[in-house]
Fold these 3 entries.
Entry 1:
Amino acid sequence: MTATNDRPPAGAGLLGLDERGVFGIRFDRPLRHSPTDVWRALTDPDRLTFWLPGCLIEPWVGGQVRFDFGEEGTATGAVRSLHAPETPRDAGALEHTWRWDGLPESVVEWRLTPTPQGTRLLLTHREAPRDAAGDFALGWHLILDVLARHLDGASSDEVWAGAESLAAHYVTG
């Protein structure tokens, strides 16, 4: 591999221990849209299924969470806490459980912070099982890329087309 290919892809997530010593996955993404726009893309059922078919996040405590990846499997969970941004300058947060068949339950947190350019989206997947973390990180990377393309009004075809080459960064063996 050349040095160019050794560089992490744009928007790459980090896998490792957090400040409490808990293993997880973390993505920090700038988006050119307000926290309210990003929130609606994540929690409005019609918008979410438009850019991420088969997925659902019910925006209330106890609400159902489902990420259906077809033959790859389905993650389910429940919303544990949320704070919707009420204006474009408000922060927002959503936390839900993540259950994948045969693996221990983990927790996903979406934090939306307003910036002068739009929103800083911080996605953290805490207590992610180490043996599945590479696959989960690949999935989150793709989902966040597709979300950004959706918000920009662009097609996500090239995101999905690049999934195999992106997998080399996260999944080994």
Note: The radius of gyration is 16 Å.
Entry 2:
Amino acid sequence: MNEGQLFTNFVIIIITFIFAAFFVAAEFALVQARVTALEEMQAKRDKPSTKINRAIKMVTNLTEYLSTTQVGVSICGIILGWVGEGTIEALLTDALSLPSWSLNNSVIHVVSAIVGVLLLTYFEVVLTEIVPKNISIDIPIKTLMFVTTPLHYFHITFYPFVWLLNSSANGIVKMLGMKPADESQDVLSQSEIISLSRNAVKGGELEHNDLLYMERAFDFNDKVAKDIMIDRTQLTVIDINKTVNDAIKLYLKTKYSRLPVVADNDKDKILGYVFNYDLIRQKQINGDVSLAKVLRHMPTTPETTPITEVLKLMISTRVPMVVVVDEYGGTSGIITDKDIYEELFGTVRDEIDNVSDNMISKIDENQYRVDGKTTIYDFERFFHVELKDSEDSDVVTLSGYVLDNYHNIHEGETIKLADLNLKIQDYRHSYIDSFIVTTLSK
């Protein structure tokens, strides 16, 4: 091979390397770039950009344009194999043919062929695969903007060939009983969305509070009335036979703006509720009348009703309080609109809330005082643990769970749940008022 041929071949190899790197960079840029980022970039411009519109089209029709880049990579690979291997082998053959090596021709050709393939493979992998791939992963949008225009025209030129390849591949995939990539939907699961959002928080693209609201929103859809209700043992009720003046006294004592009204002082017989506005207005007329005069209707819902449906019920009936009933029709508890809002926004304290009323309060670095009325869901979420068989249990509170699983427990005893030690505090009347929870180092 003369010097003119060697020079020409080297120029072809270098140009092919550049094109191969271009197609690999384009391939990874297309995969890494997100349509939302491109649309946001377009929205910030005063005048729409043709290049950005083309980039959006490419990312939207990902399978088609990935096939285009693969065609380009394949063409470059064929050229490098055809020209490059022979050129490097010829150079090595000339070098090894020098008298100082004293090698016969068969050995020279074998060594030249092996070393030529290894060298060409090394440079091809490093310069046309790894380097452009890393660049595209690091700056996908900038890379995509750089390759968009030439890739667009290459796609137009080779479109018939790309279409033929895609159609052939889709036919084979369908024969195997699967859907082609362009027919399947790119849908993310809840866990994938949360995982991506956590990465966005780490990268500074998303506020931690936004992630918190997102996690609560997903949890919100999985909860039912029983999970967030105020248990019947905590309800303050008033009998229907009491007067408006009696209800006002109870209102001033408890500061609850709405009070459930029952018959025969039985919480299983909730008739409705009274509103403090109605009570005060009626007192100005006659405060000695029965509560039936100002009684308002309160809807009921089963324990298993999703809280999204409970909220819809409140909105449709324009009643901010709902009775939760068990399978036998007895009262399990109530849900207020505030209970639902707090599932999304966290604890919302108003003028009558006592800051010391937290169900879980920190004592020191690894110890907490936990109220027995704390729901199992809130306990698991706060301490990031899962209590065994809690999902299959009918109990709602931590106290109920412990008593249900440890029948012979006594005050002062310590039990282990998950990675926590729970010391029983204030055990009276078959109910545990509070626990001292100690977190164990893993």
Note: DSSP finds 16 helices and twelve strands in the chain.
Entry 3:
Amino acid sequence: MMNHFLTEDTFRKGLSTYLDAFKYGNAEQDDLWEHLTQAAHQDGTLPLDLTVKTIMDTWTLQMGYPVITVERSPDGTSASVSQERFLLVKEGDFKSSEEYKWWVPLTYTGGDDSNFNETRAKVWMKDTETLITIQSLPTKDHWVIFNLQETGYYRVNYDNHNWNLLIQQLLTDHTVIATINRAQIIDDAMNLARADQVAYDTALEVYNYLGQETEYVPWATAINNLAYLKDMFSRTGGYGALKNYLLDILVPLYNMLGFIDSQSDPLLDQYKRQKALTWACELEHQDCLQNAAAIYAHWMNNPDNSSIISPNLKSTVYCHAISVGGEKEWNFAWNKYLKSNVGSEKIRLLSAMGCTKQVWILSRYLEIAFSPDSGIRKQDAFRVFGAVAANEVGRPLAWTFLQDQWDTIFEFYGKAKSRLIKSATSSFNSVQQLKELRLFRREHLQDLESVSRSVQQVIERTKINIAWMTSNYQVIVNWLHKNGYSTKLSNA
């Protein structure tokens, strides 16, 4: 952020004098701020009455970061801009968080004459200011975007009209908006929706353009933000509609990239393929599952040929071939795990074996993992448990196993392990699951004393998930129905 509001040349100049001055001595944070300030004042990139320390202390000495809210006037040419601390959940100490303010470098551009390359602050919002007014914006028919190239460490919210203008621009010609800012719009919309500051209708409308998106950064951002939504929906009647919607968005990218990975492909294409294939298979896209199974079968027929599966795709192929396979595919992976002496390969195989949909194999896998002479290292039993818990079929098995075998697990490690509890309960979102969690804590109160804070955090997370489901599940189902993805069955 500093190299943008100071400019790259000024930042390098200040850093150079700082390193030269302290090359043989000790330095403190304020020494760096002083040298950057001197360079900025010499170059005129900061006003003489403003120092880097004044700015950066608001970022380094207090928790969190802000969300900037932009409310444009009816004609669009001015906007009220406010700041507050961004919190996914407002509870507990929220009132004290209202006192948090930052020096915020505001950068922005408009749809009438967009320029995403000017990342030096146009306006500074002071830490004493809750609300400011910005003038000379484009008229109401043109969008504005703040935080150009996402060079500032803050989120941005807009009024409904500006959100709609951005959505229309993405649908019409998304390339008009810089790649990083497209990712920013997706990330801000989804996180603001989760924080109940933007309607999920708006956040999901942002996703509608993704069928045209080809760049890695927006796609990676979009996929990362879907994980929570998928977890919350995975055991509900609305999951099928959500899955079909996500597949319609994702399949064009999947088709464009294909399943065959080549080391000669540009690096970002390899990253995109890895993301696209992982999610396409996760959403049970048949072509993806068939390809994974076919490549894995080819490897089973040629077990000594380690080059059959691209290194980038091994995790995806292993997991989803095992998920649609049976005992034969699982046992092949197990034998490969026992024979391998490559750490990264053993980890991939351990995780992949948790992907099977065969309940009895998952149960056996959990039992093996916590046995002293299984061939699985004690520290890797965590990974096995996490892999089973991440599997929609294995999730309830992992929780049941943790409850039924708690004494065995406790003896196995010699103490309580909060990581196991977190893995088993990460997607808990019902009142019944909350009751089970509280009962588990009461029954093992003494054992859990050393991790009581972590257990309380798990309970609080479950309560947050329940509240999210109450507020958002039906809203999202209604939006899906309105857009042609119904959860209702035909009576014909």
Note: Strands lie at 66-72, 79-85, 104-106, 108-110, 123-125, 131-134, 144-146, 155-158.
